[in-house]
Amino acid sequence: MNQKYSLTALVKYFLKLGTTGFGGPVALIGYMHTDLVEKRKWITNEDYKEGLALSQLAPGPLAAQLAIYLGYVDFKITGATLAGIAFVIPSFVMVVGLGYAYMLYNGLPWMHSMFYGVGAAVIGIMAVSSFKLTRKTVGKNLLLWIIFVVMMATTAITERENVWLILASGFVVWFHKSAPPVKHSCQYFLIHPCLLQISASISFDEKLISIWWFFLKAGTFVFGSGLAIVPFLYGSVVQENHWLTGQQFLDAVAVAMITPGPVVITVGFIGYLVAGFPGAYVAALATFLPCYLFTIIPAPYFKKYGKKPGIKAFVDGVTTAAIGAIAGAVIVLAKRQFTDMLSVLIAVITVLLLLRFKIPEPVIIIAAAITGLLIIK
């Protein structure tokens, strides 16, 4: 039996978590379980598990989706909306502030020196995250290993994430394990095109409209942890639209690493670099809107359908493909970041520290920034 609590108390909790919650999605969902299920007893363990399952199934940032679902449990749409906003807004304010400082001081040598060290450390962090996710998710399953390798190679070679290949991976595993009748599969999966039919009749300028539609697509089709969005963003932000340089993009990922809250908040930093505060706001709103809808729309029905084998199989395939894309993105970004042996050394030391010791990622990022400032003149 869960303890009674107010919506105000829940919002205050997520504001605090969004302000102080470092460590990425795995750490954040762990904090929610410890605080809301074990300590405060606001949320039952069953509700928590159902929210986590739904969050893993739907595209978008895992931790933000779980926060939205937990807000929905007792306060429905109002709770889901306020919990999601409270969780995301602190890190959004931080990355916009960092974006302002980045644009203001980008021409100064110390800024480049700092991000030289940070960029190399980010490569190491992404490599370790990819390794841990792969070991935990793929295991000894041959089909999942094939999907992982194909997706990693495709992303590394083409330097962009193939959304359709990720979705196809989900259907391959779904068909292999337990293919339900076609009428059931339509019921589960055809929600995606429906949610894409969102009106574009907004009085933005052309660049803001482009930002809106691109990040809406990113939020709609990217599965996995917060880092899963990195290869998807890189292909379009750097390769196709040329909104940012490769180094600016890596700096944006680094900013997401050193701030609390969801890693996906890097979209706010990217949007600010492209079009100032309006760009940051539009990018963040477009990215988080799909995950909000994918959480509150199926929430009432998830208890009935969420445990079906077909759904779980689809999630396994999509998650594996997303992890493969992360591994491929590490290769792509490393080719641009490793300009000398010193940058390679920083990344290797980062990997060793994360594998041997439980050092928080922000601590490593700060140490790498100081290293860059001290070494690069």
TrEMBL record:
Pfam families: Chromate_transp (PF02417). Keywords: Cell membrane, Membrane, Transmembrane, Transmembrane helix. One of its GO terms (cellular component) is plasma membrane. The chain crosses the membrane at residues 13-33, 53-73, 80-102, 114-134, 141-157, 186-204, 210-237, 249-274, 280-302, 314-334, 346-376. GO terms for molecular function: chromate transmembrane transporter activity. It comes from the Bacteria. It is a multi-pass membrane protein. It is found in: Cell membrane. The keyword Membrane applies. Belongs to the chromate ion transporter (CHR) (TC 2.A.51) family. This is Chromate transporter. It comes from Ginsengibacter hankyongi. The lineage of its organism: Bacteria, Pseudomonadati, Bacteroidota, Chitinophagia, Chitinophagales.
